Amino acid sequence: MSISPPQEKLWWNEPIPKSELIWIIVGFIWGLIMFFMMIYWHAVGEQNLSNEAYRITAEDFAARTNTMIEKYKVRDEAGFPVVHPPPGSDVYLIARLWQWWPILELEKDQSYRLHISSMDWLHGFSLQPVNINLQIHPGYEMVLTAKPDKAGEYGIVCNEFCGIGHHTMVGRMYVIEK
Amino acid sequence: MAINEQYRICPATGLRVYRSAENLIKANAVIAIIFLAIGGLFGLMVALTRWKAVHLLPAEWFYLVLTAHGLNVLVVWIIFFEVAVLYFASAVLLGCRLATPRIAWAGFALMLIGAVMINIAVLQGHSSVLFTAYVPLKAAPHFYLGYILFAVGALIGCFIFFGTLVIAKQERTYEGSVPLVTFGAVTAAIIAVFTIASGAIILIPTFLWSIGLVSHIDTLMYRTVFWAFGHSSQQINVAAHISVWYLIAAVTLGAKPLSEKVSRFAFLLYILFLQLASAHHLLVDPGISSEWKIFNTSYAMYLAVLGSMIHGLTVPGSIEAAQRRKGYTNGLFEWLRKAPWGNPAFSGMFISLILFGFLGGISGVVMGVEQINLIIHNTIYVVGHFHATVVAGTTLAFMALTYLLIPLIFQRELILPGWARAQPYLFGLGVTGISLFMMGAGTLGVPRRHWDISLADAVLPYDFPGAANLMMGLNGISALLAGLGGIIFIVVAVGSVFFGKRITLAEAKPDKPEAAVVAKYGSAETPAVPGTMVLVAVFFTTFVLYYYVNWKYLAEIWPLR
Ligand code: HEM
Ligand SMILES: [Cu+2]
Ligand SMILES: [Cu+2]
């Protein structure tokens, strides 16, 4: 039994039953397929993180964001500046207790280099309803190139616990048809 | 009963049980169950808060209670019980005395003091940092200290286990190699030593930071090292509960491994390939290369997943083989239909096996894919996944084992046997519900660790789809079912331990182990296991389909580079 020493003392010499052998081979090949799927997707898939990231201080990141806001602000909404940067440009998003700052307005089917960093604690960037989720750290600037492909109003929910105001930390993003 | 000063011979199994080991197993198991009761109650409160129509707790209490829930069940309940499993798998299965029982008691005391300290810190408020305690969230110093003491106590338990193995070998209490179940426990204990070392590397500086001796801790470094600890502790759980599956199959049905070599090899894969695979927690963190993520989460060929898939065949396969030897040979599934479904140890074990594989295993592999993690990270899908692994898998397996330990170790009959019989089904159903509904809500974007998804207090509101709220409501209802199953377990277990009828020699039921049924061992006479092959084929098809469905979901989101 499984709770007594193997009856056959030289158990490592026993042949492997065929059913198990088949399953091991199937499992092994499936593992290889799953491994190559990730690499394959980097080659042909459209959703991959570049993993571009820099160390940055909160002050520097805030300064860059403010420069962008001053340049491209189009209106205010509920106390948040709404910014419409040109397609292809660098856009900045600040995560801080408990806001996503500012509101970005992007054009459909255009690419943007999106920079995100936290001013204080860990936050979770969760763009809804597309359901894109990223971990945002203080001291690290994450850069990714995003190409919104559906127009609409999006919510940015914080999905990393960041203290008592966590559930109030919701931002907004617009994607408009050009 | 053959008692001398040192040990007694268990009339049901013929195992030699030493006093010292017996008492330590009892103490660890009882404390474990008490913390499960406390932690489970907190879990119920959390689930009822996340049910919008009930919204039980205010925000501050919610995060406090969520912290207490995670710690009491994931850390305290599981690890206390695992120490009991380690002592059982060494001292009892090898018929050996326990190494240095005094030190084992010291380890027990450290764990208990640690657990109480953590709870005090959390309940005082100001330590609602969740079990992950990510910096720069700061808890009270005694929170970290409790965590550290607990870990040191657990480490002592591992060394007592290793010491016992050495004594058994020296005193030749068994012949040949250790039993498979003990081998599985060795796997768990080796991983535990690595794990606790990583835990020390991260918790000690964090403790120093909380008292002001260290000025800054990098958040990315913290998450990386924390998950070297947090992830591998899940591998301890897997190795431990799979050992428990084999154990229960052996005791209730006389099952023996189809092949010792394959099952042991599968455990070995865990040691070799699992314990550092923590990158799947960091798939959408900044500054970690794709090469490392892909390599680390799969070690190029998913060998650890292969290990689990092998056990997924060999555990039911060993049951099928045992049943077929007994003459249940009709068709593909007579062996399964005629299994002892009324024995909560068996039913609990089998439900744990199915739910762990189909719900926990598949979802875990899928969300650990580098790119797919983008649509899952930190949503409540993750919580659904790990309730399938640590609750349906580990917790239910340990509950099932408790039903065996009560007659074997505590020498008591179960009180309320009818309730005990229904318990695994009720709990299994409830946990299936919480896992599936949380996974479902997660695919709709519902965040984990969130007090209010109606986002009513936000300046810029966002509305989750109605289906998300429905899922969270169904989750609440399932939580009530699981909670009921949990309460029945606690009542039966604690009630039997203290008030169950004592089992005396005359009454010892010989029906417990069916070891005698199997006359001779050896793979040559292992029957084919066609029913199990059908089960794994169904599993594999589900796995492949679900895997590719998620790639399709991923392909629908915005292009990202
Ligand atoms: C009656 C049984 C249980 C119910 C109803 C339940 C329910 C829940 C719910 C609703 C959450 C919170 C989701 C969130 O807001 O993020 C949660 C979190 C959690 N549960 Fe359970 N649970 C139960 C039992 C268990 C058990 C037995 C374990 C471990 C063995 C466990 C481990 C955890 C962990 C680790 C978390 C995460 C805490 C965190 O995010 O910090 N639960 N549970
Ligand atoms: Cu936040
Ligand atoms: Cu947050």
Task: Please describe what this structure looks like.
The complex is a heterodimer of chains A (178) and B (561). Chain A is an alpha+beta fold. Chain A has 2 domains: 1-48; 51-176, Sandwich (Immunoglobulin-like). Helix content of chain A is 24%, strand content 38%. Chain A has 2 helices and 12 strands. In chain A, a hairpin with a 2-residue loop joins β2 and β3. The longest helix of chain A has 27 residues, at 18-44. The N and C termini of chain A lie far apart (71 Å). Chain B is mainly α. Helices cover 67% and strands 1% of the residues of chain B. Chain B is built from 15 helices and 2 strands. In chain B, strands 1-2 form a two-stranded antiparallel sheet. In chain B, α1 packs antiparallel against α2 (59-92) and α3 packs antiparallel against α4 (141-170). The radius of gyration of chain B is 23 Å and the shape is globular. Chain B starts with 6 loop residues before the first strand and ends in a 6-residue tail after the last helix. Mean pLDDT of chain B is 91; it is low at 1-5 and 508-524. Chains A and B meet through α1, β8, β9, β10 and β11 of A and α2, α6, α7, α8 and α9 of B. The complex binds protoporphyrin IX containing FE and copper (II) ion (2 copies).
Question: Gist?
Answer:
Chain A has 178 residues and is of the alpha+beta class.
List low-pLDDT spans of chain A: none
CATH architecture of the largest domain in chain A: Sandwich
The main pleated sheet of chain B reads as: 2 strands, antiparallel
Give the rounded overall mean pLDDT of chain A. 95
Classify the beta-strand content of chain A into a percent band. Answer: 35-45%
Structure summary, number of beta strands of chain A: 12
The chain pair with the largest interface is:
A-B, 89 and 111 residues
Q: Which geometry of chain B do the CA atoms define?
A: globular
Q: Could you estimate the helical fraction of the residues of chain A in percent?
A: 10-25%
**Helix and strand succession of chain B?**
EEHHHHHHHHHHHHHHH
Class by helix and strand content of chain A? alpha+beta
Radius of gyration of chain B: 23 Å
Distance between the termini of chain B: 71 Å
Which fold name is given in CATH as the topology of the largest domain in chain A? Immunoglobulin-like
Intertermini distance of chain A: 71 Å
